[in-house]
Request: fold
Amino acid sequence: MYRLWAKAIKNNKIINTIDVKNGENITQEQKLKKCLSEIFYKLDVSAPVWLPKHNKEFMEFKKIIFYKDDFIDDVVFDKLEIDLIDDGNKIN
Reply:
């Protein structure tokens, strides 16, 4: 089961958390896109600008950090941290 955990942070305090899952038989990239869309929908924000640094962060650290400046619209948080909790690959 592919699973992401998002934390909206303001003044170094978590103000909202969202846990989303996707068990569909689709590619990892498609699962990531669907889960991100669900997170942004639940937070009622538009999708942020996706930069090459976000790809690098996610590939290296399994974490993405979006700051206020990454969003076109105003947001109520200072940053949005999204962690990959489970990529759906079983380790034996």
